[in-house]
Amino acid sequence: MSRSKKAARRGKRNADGTPSGSNKKQKKEVTKAVAANTTATGAVNVDKGSRQWAESTLTKLLGGMSLETFLSEYFEKKPLHVRKADKGALFGSGLFSRKKMLKVMEKQPHMGFGKDLTVCRYVNSERENFDGEDSNGHATSRQVASLLDRGYSCQFYQPQRYVDGLYELNAAFEEVFGGLAGASAYLTPANAQALAPHHDDVEVFVLQTQGRKKWKLYHPLVELAGEHSSDLAEDQIGEPWMELTVEEGDLLYFPRGVVHQACTDKEEFSTHVTVSVYQH
């Protein structure tokens, strides 16, 4: 592992959990490093924290696809949906959920809206943020649970600070891609949507850890965008490129610049963790 656990959890990041500053590593450097560390049989019995362990971890997340194949055919090119139903378990069960987030909040008495989490909802093409003014910005587990019950969604920043399994996944991404990886958890109640259509300035890996979510992906307005977009209107983004349902245990990858929006169905509460790399 390139950095200590303490350093990894305190690494400088933006408010949404993405790395601070540009990642200067080029894709060809990552590809070269992967090729240099690939063995004929694949890394299985390796030390946790090593380069081989990191590559083996990401290969498992990709459903057994080699990193060389992923980098050459998908990375910065097109989305990839890896289904647990087809490939078996990609990551540990119970990795993150509503229950786990609320338990973390119970043990962290100084969490705040805008600092540690954002609570919002997207209704009738309008985004509404809960600012927490009545509590001076202080966020409690009971208050957030009530907001989730009322149809709000929650974006919880940097959950890897509190969950070892997420910390280890982040560390694997950092080792392979040669820079900081960001993470945020998104919790959305049934029959709800958190965010307007938009695109990001990072490579996005979605790990669906609870329930399911319906995604619409649209062709980029800006290829490999270098900046995060503002909220986009439906008439700006055209028809969907892909529509898919990401089930618990699945992984979804899409490049920076791909416009996207996601919502839950009428039955399932959804939690997913987004790990992001290559902020430009």
TrEMBL record:
EC number(s) stated in the UniProt entry for this protein: 1.14.11.-
Record's subcellular location: Nucleus
Name used for this protein in its record: Bifunctional lysine-specific demethylase and histidyl-hydroxylase
Cofactor: binding comment: Binds 1 Fe(2+) ion per subunit.
Domain JmjC as annotated: residue spans: 158-280
Cofactor(s) listed: Fe(2+)
PROSITE patterns the UniProt entry points to: JMJC
UniProt KW Oxidoreductase keyword: yes
Matches recorded under SUPFAM superfamilies: Clavaminate synthase-like
First-level EC class: oxidoreductase
Keyword Manganese on entry: no
Native species: Phytophthora palmivora
